[in-house]
Specification:
The chain is an alpha+beta fold and 237 residues long. It contains seven helices and six strands. The termini are close together.
């Protein structure tokens, strides 16, 4: 299955969820190398990058900037030929606003399983289509790996109980999903061994509870930007 781009929410909501996932991982697991989720609000001037990396080669990156947002993912168990074909297709089809990312080693654009983007002028997300029409509806991992960005807090609870072998209170997860204030009680409920000061330091590095801002909008948050044009440059499965 592939994730229908129509199910993707606006970039600001994806950023909010990705930030919450990164903070939850940081509180539950102080050891950075064992976390799946991260969020860098200072990747470059006016640019935020969220990521999921499971240590086995599977990953996605969400890049947000004044140009809009782009998501790239790779599932290492899928055919390498498809990953190469999709990488070449990304070089041809991803809009020029994101061209710098296509050659940035951070995003490993030489292996692509799925890719979505939304420019500021686009009304909906666009999906990168496989160059072979017979392969355009193949399984690409997008629905599985991006689901945690779209699903309710119970999805993170299931991930945490399995991976971290703990049972974080669902209410505390929902608290951070809502970008509510980080309190000593919330931190203690998630990880009794972590101090509020350490949790606040982690939140500051992630940028929680803020959201990305356009570099050319004098501090106007992405939430306030009107998006009103049609999508172009890609095909949806």
């Amino acid at each position: 299955m592939q994730l229908d781009p129509l199910y993707l929410p606006p970039p600001r909501l994806l950023a909010q969820r990705a930030m919450a996932l990164a903070l939850l991982d940081a509180i539950l697991c102080p050891e950075v190398e064992y976390r799946y989720f991260s969020y860098d609000p200072a990747f470059a001037a006016g640019q935020h990058v969220a990521a999921m990396r499971n240590g086995e080669g599977d990953h996605w990156y969400l890049h947000l900037s004044g140009a809009g947002a782009i998501i790239k993912g790779h599932v290492h168990a899928l055919p390498r030929a498809d990953a190469r074909a999709m990488a070449l297709q990304a070089q041809r089809m991803v809009p020029g606003e994101f061209a710098a990312l296509l050659h940035d080693a951070t995003f490993m654009m030489d292996t692509v399983s799925f890719c979505y983007w939304q420019r500021l002028e686009d009304a909906v997300w666009c999906q990168l289509a496989h160059p072979d029409a017979r392969q355009q509806h193949r399984y690409d991992g997008s629905q599985d790996y991006l689901s945690i960005l779209l699903a309710p807090a119970s999805c993170y609870y299931e991930y945490a109980t399995d991976y971290f072998e703990c049972e974080p209170p669902l209410a505390s997860i929902e608290h951070l999903y809502a970008h509510a204030p980080l309190t000593a009680a919330i931190v203690r409920s998630l990880n009794p061994q972590m101090s509020l000061a350490d949790a606040l330091a982690a939140a500051a590095r992630i940028g929680y509870p803020g959201l990305p801002r356009r570099p050319d909008s004098a501090g106007v948050p992405l939430a306030a930007i009107r998006i009103n044009a049609a999508c172009s440059g890609g095909a949806a499965a």
